[in-house]
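Before we proceed, please read the two lines closing this message. Let me know whether the structure tokens fit the sequence:

…
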Amino acid sequence: ASRGRRNCRPSALTSVTTDSSGSTAVKTSSIVATTQTYNDDVTLGANATIDGTTLTFAKKVDADLAANNRTLTITTATATTFGSTIGTSAQLSSLTTSSAGPTTLKGNVSATTQVYKGATKLGANSIMTGSVVTFESTLDGDTANTRTLTITADGATTFGAAVGNTFALSSLTTDAAGSTAINTTTLKATT
């Protein structure tokens, strides 16, 4: 009798949690787990897609080498929190967040292309550096008139939905290089 070949599809993990000491190297193209909490620094050693419901990066996220310009794509997450900087030690090629839920940013971001598909909330003052920065959904502070956002992009910066509608920003600044498209009727910032 011959044995048939079975196609086994691995099940998604329920959770992934790292400790706060040391660092985590992501050297795979995909991580799937319902809840993911990275309590230490994360270094991307490959272009990565991270899929889950609740994602938390407590500390910084960087590429392994600036020359590698890794990509980070968040899919299906209903809540994503970046607790520190992204790409400031070794810039990412791209950062794309999920449209399924909000992303909270608590640090500076350096990625050539940045696409924030879902609602974005600033949990700290932030400087975004890259070529293209796109907000497809709303952008707010976490409290009114306390957060500043500076975007330094030599390409296009696009605001596709309300800015500061729930919590106005203290200030919003884009640089002189490139262009800025405001595709919304609501933009609230003190300066």
